[in-house]
């Protein structure tokens, strides 16, 4: 009797396994994690392109090696590509260009503890990010990582490396840009510079064909100078309201900009001091000068809601202990400024956000290019997750979800000077794509690896999450990447 029951169980198990395998084969045929194919077909997916148009489809996309060779109306029937070797069935899935993060940091340590590159890359790819503009890292290591990514030797987004330029004299400034050229940088990043130094950097950068990202601070230069000298993109937002002040900001006598507790507290009071008429002129001038704006709303969010920032749900499984340690209030760590953060500080910052978001919306309405970046690894923002949160904040700022997707794809590609290769699902473009099993235009939370909780037939279920990330034609199973992140975190916690 036992043998009969056992045989029945074995037969049933084989049947279930066969059904599951067949179901898997329908979804993916001949697809392995981390591989590129001579020809790959994504069939029957709903397309959300990066050009600011509504969803359409279903479509079939043909990829040859690392390039999209065709985007066409879907062929009907499950047997349409029966003879093809490598097929992803996109039925019920939404196909988007890979997300572009134009303000990222490839950190190799946090709070004095090592941080594996693999951890950051898996988070980015798992969240659908296929291109990153690095604007601050160990450049020697990042150059090596960029080459490994280009060759497909590591699972990582495409990397553009912007290196820091400056100096004490215009001559030193020009030389610093020349050194970036020799080192193989892709662009230039500048911080607080005097006007003559900034002018020299920008002139030399333009001469050598570099684009320039400006992390503006409270300094001699502001948005007027970005427009005059030809900055490619303003990072964050300092410099824009400053340019619309009547004189200086109303700092108390004891204020010290080098004290980050002072700096971030009074940053929350800046936008309300900007003159609206003067601000309108600043925004118009920036647009006419073709200066893009990457506001990074997300990186300051803890200033308006400290408790929310500290308790984000993905921290439980995905926050590396080195990053957790860096986040704790500590004057030794940049951005770890929130000791004795008050209700009044949050109230000021909420008003700051309202005016700031309104300014970004007005800039876009003038025709200005708005981009998306995360600046993660600081101020309670986790790589990948924070870029998706940035999308949500763009929607809060008043942008339609279709336009938000455009910010993170075509607009960012334009800022990189890669609008003819990235940011679209179009013939001839690089095969950087993501497949999501829910519609992000309905809810950007569907892009989070943690998904969205819902109830179906009386049971709690999870919906959403990126299922497949394709970079340079290489196919990655996003849930598998996120499982690897969990493993890295657990191993680090045991050390």
Walkthrough of the structure:
- There is one protein chain.
- With 495 residues, this protein is of the alpha/beta class.
- It folds into two domains: 2-97 and 434-475, Urease, subunit C, domain 1, CATH 2.30.40; 99-416, Metal-dependent hydrolases (TIM Barrel, Alpha-Beta Barrel).
- The chain is 38% helix and 19% strand.
- The chain is built from 15 helices and 21 strands.
- The strands form four sheets. Strands 1, 2, 3, 4, 5, 6, 7, 17, 20 and 21 form a ten-stranded mixed beta sheet that branches.
- Helix 13 crosses helix 14 (401-416).
- The protein is globular, with a radius of gyration of 24 Å.
Multimeric state? single chain
Largest sheet: 10 strands, mixed
Under the CATH scheme, which class of the largest domain? Alpha Beta
Radius of gyration: 24 Å
What characteristic shape results from the CA principal axes?
Answer: globular
Low-confidence runs? 1-26
- Count of distinct structural domains: 2
Task: State the total count of DSSP E strands.
Answer: 21
Report the CATH architecture of the largest domain: Alpha-Beta Barrel
Helicity range: 25-40%
The CATH topology label of the largest domain is: TIM Barrel
CATH homologous superfamily of the largest domain, by name? Metal-dependent hydrolases
Number of helices: 15
Distance between the termini: 51 Å
Arithmetic mean pLDDT: 93
Approximate strand percentage: 15-25%
Structural class per helix/strand content?
A: alpha/beta
